[in-house]
Write a structure and sequence with these properties.
Keywords: Nucleotidyltransferase, Transferase. The protein is of the alpha/beta class. The chain has six helices and ten strands; from the N terminus they run βββαβααβαββββαβα.
Length: 233
């Protein structure tokens, strides 16, 4: 089995939902659901949290994750990119544990509906296809070839993407997907050398909509809370 590091990146000061990462969801903090999934899938020796918040660090530690550094103010700002945050956590972890990890799997704390089997299956697909990295998504409700539109500076409205033929039914359009910010997988050398998420050998693991809600606002939180309560959490 390859050496695989799990990171969960969770900064404080969320705008859409106050204290989102530690807000209680079905009896425990939001981030605790992702930590539990990471532990249950059995792929990781280390589950590392990247955060700038002492409160998040305390909660994450209590639920079994490892917090041995505090994220810098620069990487905790509103303009910091997720990829740079992941690289920072990865390099810090290699130095801290004295291990060169072959792969990294990053789990977003705001996607608590994923299953441990999603993590396992996505990783198995990543290995089978020899991807450089892998992202997760769900089939999109809207198609850029059919009913997603754009408006230019002059006010003209057009389809987001055009084909050489008219698409009369959404089902006839090329398949499109909504990224669900759930699971990201990287080969070590690719992670450290690339600055883009979309590469020639980027893999796609498709998840159902029911497990793909990414909590970004209070309405998302209520949707997830309802779904989890229906499943009895």
């Amino acid at each position: 089995m390859s050496s695989v590091l799990c990171t969960i990146c969770a900064r404080g000061g969320s705008k859409g939902v106050k204290n989102k990462n530690i807000k209680e969801l079905c009896g425990k903090p939001l981030i605790a659901h992702t930590i539990a999934q990471a532990k249950e899938c059995g792929l990781f020796d280390h589950i590392v949290i990247s955060t700038d918040s002492d409160e998040i660090a305390d909660v994450a530690t209590r639920y079994g994750a490892e917090v041995f550094f505090k994220r810098s103010d620069e990487l905790a700002s509103d303009i910091a990119g997720k990829l740079e945050v992941i690289k920072d956590a990865f390099l810090r972890s290699e130095e801290h544990y004295g291990v060169k990890f072959e792969h990294l799997i990053d789990l977003d704390a705001t996607s608590p509906l994923r299953l441990p089997s999603d993590i396992i299956n996505a990783y198995e697909q990543f290995l089978k296809d020899d991807n450089d990295n892998l992202i997760t998504a769900m089939p999109s409700r809207r198609s850029p070839y059919f009913n997603l539109i754009e408006q230019d500076k002059s006010g003209k409205i057009s389809l987001s993407k055009k084909l050489y033929f008219n698409v009369l039914r959404r089902q006839d359009a090329p398949k499109s997907y909504d990224m669900n910010a759930s699971i990201y997988i990287w080969k070590r050398d690719v992670l450290l050398s690339e600055n883009s998420l979309f590469l020639d050998k980027t893999g796609l693991y498709v998840m159902p909509e029911m497990r793909s809600i990414d909590i970004d606002c209070e309405l998302d939180f209520k949707f997830v809370e309802f779904i989890m309560s229906e499943k009895k959490c």
